[in-house]
Each structure stands twice: as structure tokens, then as C-alpha cells.
Specification:
Layout (H helix, E strand, L loop, with lengths): L1 E9 L2 E6 L2 E9 L2 H10 L5 E5 H6 L5 H10 L4 E4 L5 H9 L4 E4 L1 H5 L2 H7 L4 E8 L2 E3 L11 H7 L7 E6 L11 H10 L3 E5 L5 H8 L2 E2 L2 E2 L2 E4 L1 H4 L5 H9 L1
Parallel strand pairs: 1-4, 1-13, 4-5, 5-6, 6-7, 7-9, 9-10, 10-13
Antiparallel strand pairs: 1-2, 2-3, 7-8, 11-12
Helix pairs in contact: 1-3, 9-11
């Protein structure tokens, strides 16, 4: 199970939103490249970067920052936010991103996932409140049923599905283990969990989901790392044990 430290970009800064609300933002760093280097130096084998501005508007205003992050670290960078066309996905690949995450466009134009997957590694981002998937930077609901979509994209060529429980994102209220277990049972795709991690013990609970044949592939952690609830090193130790 891989650890994905999160770098959410808005206006070139590292921020975290509370339950996906752009009006409830906490800024943690004005140096996202330096933050990425810290995570990588601490042993993280992946980074998860989200362009929150692009997720909302489709305009990749943080593309240069993302390119700088990818250039500064020796670990693969997974990036989402505003990937709504082949050109947008290709621009991220050109910027050094190892895998793009398609959210809104995957829900609204599922065939885009197949087209991108034929050219570069891709994951599907499914952000939900309960089982209702939200789109456009989490500001619009009615995107469909989480489990049905997770199953539908199994044959799309995507490498993984990134599942975020919006009501828990940035809250440090604990992950939605029951919901994640349901997603894991619904799809053969690798499942990466996001939202709610507050304690190092939460990582152990996530690692225990599933059985010896199939478990979660990864977990995205943001606020808990920024606020010192535990370190990258402690997280990696917990996941390894």
C-alpha cells in the first residue's frame, strides 16, 4: 500500500480545503516545490498533486508549478484537477507528470479515459458524498453512483481509481472504511483512498480493508502531515507493518 502525500495547489500555494469548500481554505506553504522535496526526501515513493484552480475552472493556472515539482523530485507525481481533454492530459505528461487523474471529464465523457489511457497512464478520480459523485471541483452533485462508476471504468484502461469521501476530506475525522471496502469489492481497479486520515492508526485500518487477495493500493494524506499529526516516516512504517 503506497503513501501519497498530497499537495493541493491554489494560486501557487499549498492549501487544504475543508469538505471540498473553496471558502474554507487553509494555506500551509508558499513553496510547493520545497514541500514536495521534503516529502520525497522523507521517503515517499509517490506524490499526489491537485490543481484546485483548474478543477474549478478548467484553466491550468498551476501548470508551471506542477512542472517544477516534477522536475525537483525523483519520485513519480500523480496529478489531477481540470483534466478535461487529451490536450490537457498531454500537457501534464509534458510537464513530467507520471499519471494523470481525470475526475469531472471521466464522469461526463467516459470515452476520454480510454483515449487518454491509450497514450499515457491515467487514474479515474471519483469524489463523492456518500455514493453520490460530485464534479467541477466538488461544487456540483448528481454525477452518478460511486460503485456503479467504479465498476464501469474497470475496462477503460485506467490504472487506478482515486476515491475521495468529500464529507471527510480535510476534516481529520477518520477515513470511510466501509465505503472504501464497498468500492474495493465493486471494481477490479487499484483503489487509492483519500479523505479523513488523522492518526497513524487510521493507516492501519485502511491497510486491513480487503483480504489476502486484494487490498487498497494506496492512501492520500494531506492535512495530517501538514499539521504534524504524524510524519511521512511514521506513515511508511505503519503501512509496512
Amino acid at each position: 500500500m503506497q503513501l501519497y502525500p498530497a499537495i493541493d495547489l491554489r494560486g501557487g500555494r499549498c492549501v487544504r480545503l475543508y469538505q471540498g469548500s473553496y471558502d474554507a481554505e487553509t494555506a500551509y506553504s508558499d513553496d510547493p516545490v520545497g514541500q514536495a522535496q521534503q516529502f520525497a526526501d522523507a521517503g515517499a515513493s509517490w506524490l499526489h498533486v491537485v490543481d484546485l484552480d483548474a478543477a474549478r475552472t478548467g484553466d491550468p493556472v498551476n501548470l508551471a508549478v506542477i512542472a517544477a515539482i516534477a522536475d525537483a523530485v525523483d519520485v513519480p507525481v500523480q496529478t489531477g484537477g481540470g483534466v478535461r481533454s487529451l490536450d490537457a492530459a498531454a500537457a501534464l505528461a509534458d510537464a513530467g507528470v507520471a499519471r494523470v487523474v481525470i475526475g469531472t471529464a471521466a464522469v461526463e465523457t467516459p470515452e476520454l479515459v480510454e483515449k487518454v489511457a491509450a497514450r499515457q497512464p491515467v487514474a479515474v478520480g471519483l469524489d463523492a458524498r456518500g455514493r453520490e459523485v460530485a464534479t467541477h471541483g466538488w461544487e456540483q452533485g448528481g454525477g452518478g453512483d460511486l460503485l456503479e462508476l467504479a465498476a464501469r471504468f474497470e475496462s477503460s484502461g485506467a490504472e487506478a481509481v482515486v476515491v475521495t469521501e468529500i464529507s471527510r476530506d480535510g476534516t481529520m475525522s477518520g477515513p470511510d472504511t466501509d465505503g472504501l471496502a464497498a468500492v474495493l469489492a465493486a471494481t477490479g481497479l487499484a483503489v487509492i483512498a483519500s479523505g479523513g486520515v488523522a492518526r497513524v492508526e487510521d493507516l492501519g485500518e485502511l491497510a486491513a480493508i480487503g483480504d489476502h487477495r486484494r487490498r487498497l493500493a494506496g492512501v492520500i494524506v494531506g492535512r495530517a502531515l501538514y499539521e504534524g499529526r504524524f510524519t511521512v516516516e511514521q506513515a511508511l512504517e505503519a503501512l509496512a507493518s
